[in-house]
């Protein structure tokens, strides 16, 4: 009885899911930002929830830097922003950050983690062999190439892995139609179809033939001989079909909205798939993309997890998702505009503070969720905080020095590696805490004789100890110390702590700041 | 709530709850309905020690000898203290513990590549899928860990992870279930030959502050940190802020704890250290005993190297001399570990697993002085021993030439399910993967003949 109920529900709901994204009359991004806030507020009203107070300027600055450029601001940037008393300073900050080279790098890192997850047995992704791919992605984000064009290029690419960026995507998936099907549907359409690979599941909307019909679009990639699993070249052939597992039944290509493709149209199958996926009429593509961008800024997606759209996992704000998706499609899949819209909402400006005993439903977005940093962000923020500037931002540098820094970075990242999911949970364990407290990176960074930032502070003889403590707070936490903190930490530096040495005491302060939750989290 | 329900399972998100509520009607096993059905005494802490044989050990030269056949090679079988069970003449000390060993001679798997085989054996799953499966240590320590432990739940001693790093990682369980690593041996270079009078050195990565920072300074730093943490958590009373603070508290507790002394092998008498063997494996087994005593649920010790490189068991060449040498180190470490656990009453709650990524060809390749055996997953041997295991037996049989399984074929999931049962864990218990799907700890069937 139960499966039948699910089937009926799924029919009703799929009518909703298959609505094409339609145009809405939004004349500019400000109107869209306001509309987002309006729809969120409507739900607060129903849930009888008061939104949190606005975040402080310092909190907002650090959050926007982390979300839009991946790293924390420098002390100079913090001082300048806090001193700025002209109007619209948050909107002006967002514009400035969207124009920074680091914004493109940050998006490239985020999309690379999605497109090339560090999965099993994948030597191509170890040892930082993704430079060509990274450059390809980053170049598009620098140019703000419309997202549909980027995806189309990935879906129709061919050539050598060491020359053509997106080819790495295919070789890491071993050019297998079933893997490419599972991955592209998850990343670009936000749906999980791979569970139907082996057989039909009673609760799943997708049937085995849906899966293989979709996989058939990748059937004509020339398969490497069994000996060369990691073939380094992608070539589209003119023949090749997929069959249902353990049978001889050939499954013709079929889109997920059940449209079959015109036989013998002469157009390569992957081109037909790219046409369908990136069409403004596609019911999934724009929704999946705005939802991913939303979760990057807000911690949770409107659909969460972001790659599991379906009747079983409805959006928290369906109308908001539909309108945002329509707006995105209507504006040529302009990602920079999308981030501008989202970062300029009132919701994005709200505090993340929650007092003990208060219960907050994070999926109402009435408070900002606390996000954990990716391993890459932890490393880059540490580097920024201690002024190890060369290491910030992976621009594909290949100098010997760059490689050496890269090795240090790889070793650090290896300790923190995690599936890029559930960013609202703190993921690390004891080994990572030990590495933060006692590992080589922090030992060097807080060693009075080797630390760049401590050397600079100590050399600046015109600084008082109070100013030195202030710089350390600004560097690590992007804020001034509060009164009580100021008193406690300045007194500690003055007396010199257990070593009776102010320099050592400054290193202790830096150590504590870099190990704090406030440093390790995006709030 | 019983023990298994209240332990640190991946917290369910609101959506998971909804999904579970919707599906519970149809699939009762989504909720752990029976946790302690397998554990005869749930209050007793269970342990697991994995002896991981990097490179793939030769079954015919260790536990499945073929003296009657040309494939058998040079080594002779000897009797163990269990009637009818014979093992290699180069494992004489282990032979005295034959009554504790269940030798599975009928393993049959499908991965003959180091990287893929390592992943398969250590996770129970084929490599290459979209799901990042957790390594055995993460999976089992999560189930066995006592709440509020001072020590980490999973410790890995001298792992060689280069074949497949994912096979040593916590996968979808996340870094909080990652191994604490001691003396990683991730290098193709031969390890430094320790001189004959010294012991292999094993240390925990980053366990203590460097010498340049005094003990008083460490305390002062921690007290500064505490004041920052208290301030932040009072303003952000959220799960992620609280769990960050908690993880640090546990790490600090370990740095300061008596239990961390378990890592200090110099506390042991020389006679004891010598009995285990002075190499990395022997000293690793000694550390494993100390860690089990201090309550750590899962410890793995890798044997690959000796002084001569990390790929010790990969004996394409020079098989007999190398296996003999490796057997001596294995014999001393493993047998002393069993004796000492037994003396302390810990063997009955500690299950030991011996395995590598696959076996080796029954045929001797490249005959002559450099004779070797190549990779062979079709018919090979693993061993379960100690707590929860019905010892003194060989399970399954290979053909006379050793080329195929003649009786009682065992695949990885079955072996892992059997290990779970020996440890008092329900193999059907499920974790939620990063894709939101429930995944059983082990998907095979328990081999009842092996479980005590």
Calculate Rg of chain B over CA atoms. 22 Å
Mean pLDDT of chain B: 85
Beta content of chain A comes to under 5%
Widest β-sheet, arrangement of strands of chain B:
6-5-7-1-8-11-4-12
Provide the helix percentage of chain B. 25-40%
Tell me the fraction of residues in β-strands of chain B, as a range: 5-15%
Strand order of the largest sheet of chain A: 1-2
Uncertain parts of chain B? 1-40, 188-192
Distance between the ends of chain B? 28 Å
Write structural notes for this entry.
The complex is a heterodimer of chains A (523) and B (452). Chain A has 523 residues and is mostly helical. Chain A has 24 helices and 6 strands. Chain B is an alpha/beta fold and 452 residues long. Chain B has a domain of 250 residues. Chain B contains 11 helices and 16 strands. In chain B, helix 9 packs parallel to helix 10. Chains A and B meet through helix 10, strand 5, helix 18, helix 22 and helix 23 of A and helix 2, helix 4, helix 6 and helix 7 of B.
Provide a compact summary of the structure.
Chain A has 523 residues and is an all-alpha fold. In chain A, 52% of the residues lie in helices and 2% in strands. Chain A has three domains: 16-54 and 280-365, no CATH class; 119-277, no CATH class; 371-522, serine acetyltransferase, domain 1, CATH 1.10.3130.
What layout of secondary structure does this protein have?
The complex is a heterodimer of chains A (523) and B (452).
Chain A: H1 2-17, H2 29-47, H3 57-69, H4 75-83, H5 89-98, H6 101-115, H7 131-143, H8 147-156, E1 159-160, H9 167-172, H10 177-189, H11 208-215, E2 233-234, E3 242-243, E4 250-251, H12 269-277, H13 285-298, H14 318-330, H15 335-343, E5 371-372, H16 375-385, H17 400-416, H18 430-438, H19 440-445, H20 452-459, H21 465-477, H22 483-495, H23 502-515, H24 517-520, E6 521-522
Antiparallel strand pairs in A: 1-2, 3-4, 5-6
Helix pairs in contact in A: 2-14, 2-15, 3-5, 5-15, 6-7, 8-12, 10-11, 13-14, 13-15, 21-22, 21-23, 22-23
Chain B: H1 3-6, H2 14-24, E1 47-53, E2 77-79, E3 86-88, H3 92-95, E4 101-107, H4 114-123, H5 136-144, E5 154-157, E6 180-182, H6 215-235, H7 239-256, H8 270-276, H9 280-293, E7 298-303, H10 319-343, E8 350-356, E9 359-360, E10 375-376, E11 380-386, E12 393-395, E13 397-398, E14 405-407, H11 412-422, E15 430-432, E16 438-440
Parallel strand pairs in B: 1-7, 1-8, 4-12, 5-6, 5-7
Antiparallel strand pairs in B: 2-3, 4-11, 8-11, 9-10, 13-14, 15-16
């Amino acid at each position: 009885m139960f499966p039948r109920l699910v089937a009926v529900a799924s029919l009703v709901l799929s009518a909703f899911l298959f609505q094409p994204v339609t145009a809405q009359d939004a004349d500019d991004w400000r109107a869209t930002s306001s509309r987002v806030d309006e729809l969120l507020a409507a739900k607060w009203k129903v849930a009888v929830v008061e939104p949190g107070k606005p975040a402080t300027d310092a909190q907002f600055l650090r959050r926007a830097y982390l979300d839009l450029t991946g790293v924390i601001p420098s002390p100079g940037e913090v001082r300048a922003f806090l001193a700025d008393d002209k109007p619209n300073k948050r909107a002006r900050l967002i514009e400035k950050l969207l124009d920074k080279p680091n914004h493109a790098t940050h998006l490239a890192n985020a999309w690379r983690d999605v497109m090339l997850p560090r999965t099993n047995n994948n030597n191509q992704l170890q040892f930082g062999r993704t430079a060509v791919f990274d450059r390809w992605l980053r170049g598009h984000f620098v140019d703000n190439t419309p997202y549909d064009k980027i995806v189309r290029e990935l879906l129709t690419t061919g050539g050598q892995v060491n020359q053509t960026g997106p080819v790495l995507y295919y070789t890491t998936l071993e050019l297998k139609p079933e893997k490419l099907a599972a991955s592209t549907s998850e990343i670009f359409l936000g749906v999980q179809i791979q569970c139907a690979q082996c057989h039909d599941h009673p609760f799943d909307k997708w049937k085995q033939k849906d899966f293989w019909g979709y996989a058939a679009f990748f059937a004509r990639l020339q398969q490497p001989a069994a000996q060369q699993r990691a073939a380094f070249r992608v070539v589209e052939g003119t023949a090749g079909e997929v069959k249902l597992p353990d049978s001889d039944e050939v499954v013709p290509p079929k889109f997920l909205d059940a449209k079959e493709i015109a036989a013998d149209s002469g157009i390569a199958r992957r081109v037909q798939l790219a046409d369908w996926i990136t069409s403004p009429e596609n019911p999934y593509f724009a929704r999946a993309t705005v939802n991913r961008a939303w979760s990057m800024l807000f911690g949770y997606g409107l659909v969460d997890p972001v790659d599991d759209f379906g009747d079983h996992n409805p959006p928290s704000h369906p109308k908001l998702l539909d309108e945002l998706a329509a707006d995105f499609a209507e504006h040529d899949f302009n990602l920079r505009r999308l981030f501008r819209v989202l970062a300029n909402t009132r919701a994005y400006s709200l505090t993340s503070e929650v007092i003990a005993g208060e219960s907050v439903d994070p999926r109402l977005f009435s408070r900002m969720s606390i996000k954990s940093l990716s391993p890459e962000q932890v490393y880059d923020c540490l580097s920024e905080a201690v002024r190890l500037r060369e290491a910030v931002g992976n621009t594909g540098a290949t100098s010997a020095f760059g490689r050496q820094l890269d090795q240090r970075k790889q070793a650090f990242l290896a300790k923190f590696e995690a599936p890029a999911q559930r960013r609202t949970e703190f993921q690390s364990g004891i080994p990572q805490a030990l590495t933060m407290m006692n590992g080589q990176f922090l030992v060097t960074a807080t060693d009075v004789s080797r630390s760049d930032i401590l050397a600079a502070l100590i050399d600046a003889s015109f600084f008082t100890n109070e100013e030195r403590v202030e710089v350390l707070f600004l560097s690590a936490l992007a804020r001034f110390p509060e009164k009580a903190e100021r008193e406690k930490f300045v007194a500690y530096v003055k007396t010199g702590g257990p070593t009776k040495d102010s320099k050592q005491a400054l290193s202790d302060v830096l150590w504590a700041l870099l190990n704090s939750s406030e440093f390790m989290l995006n709030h | 709530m019983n023990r298994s329900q209240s332990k640190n399972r991946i917290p369910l998100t609101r959506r998971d709850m909804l999904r579970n509520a919707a599906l519970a009607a149809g699939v009762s096993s989504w909720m752990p309905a029976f946790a302690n059905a397998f554990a005869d005494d749930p209050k007793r802490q269970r342990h697991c020690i994995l002896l991981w044989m990097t490179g793939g050990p030769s079954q015919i030269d260790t536990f499945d000898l073929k003296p009657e056949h040309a494939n058998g090679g040079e080594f002779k079988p000897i009797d163990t203290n269990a009637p009818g069970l014979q093992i290699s003449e180069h494992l004489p000390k282990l032979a005295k513990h034959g009554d504790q060993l269940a030798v599975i001679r009928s393993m049959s798997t499908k991965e003959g590549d180091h990287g893929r085989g390592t992943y398969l054996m250590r996770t129970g799953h084929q490599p290459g899928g979209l799901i990042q499966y957790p390594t055995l240590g993460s999976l089992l320590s999560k189930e066995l860990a006592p709440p509020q432990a001072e020590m980490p739940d999973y410790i890995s001693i001298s792992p060689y992870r280069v074949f497949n790093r994912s096979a040593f990682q916590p996968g979808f369980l996340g870094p909080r279930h990652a191994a604490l690593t001691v003396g990683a041996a991730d290098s193709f270079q031969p390890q430094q030959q320790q001189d004959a009078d010294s012991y292999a050195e094993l240390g925990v990565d980053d366990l203590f502050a460097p010498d340049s920072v005094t003990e008083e300074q460490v305390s002062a730093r921690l007290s500064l940190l505490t004041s920052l943490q208290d301030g932040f958590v009072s303003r952000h009373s959220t799960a992620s802020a609280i769990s960050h603070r908690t993880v640090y508290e546990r790490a600090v507790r370990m740095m300061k704890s008596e239990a961390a002394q378990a890592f200090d092998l110099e506390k042991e008498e020389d006679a004891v250290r010598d009995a285990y063997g002075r190499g990395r494996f022997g000293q690793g087994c000694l550390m494993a005993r100390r860690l089990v005593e201090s309550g750590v649920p899962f410890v793995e010790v890798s044997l690959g190297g000796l002084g001569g490189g990390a790929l010790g068991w990969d004996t394409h060449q020079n098989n007999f001399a190398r296996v003999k040498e490796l057997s001596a180190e294995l014999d001393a470490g493993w047998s002393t570990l069993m004796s000492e656990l037994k003396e302390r009453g810990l063997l009955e709650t500690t299950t030991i697993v011996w395995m590598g990524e696959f076996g080796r060809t029954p045929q001797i390749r490249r005959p002559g002085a450099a004779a070797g055996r190549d990779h062979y997953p079709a018919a090979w041997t693993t061993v379960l021993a100690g707590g929860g295991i019905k010892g003194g037996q060989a399970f399954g049989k290979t053909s006379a030439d050793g080329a195929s399984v003649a009786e009682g074929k065992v695949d990885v999931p079955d072996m892992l399910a059997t290990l779970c049962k020996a440890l008092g864990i329900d193999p059907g218990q499920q974790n939620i993967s990063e894709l939101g799907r429930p995944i059983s700890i082990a998907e095979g069937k328990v081999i009842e003949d092996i479980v005590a």
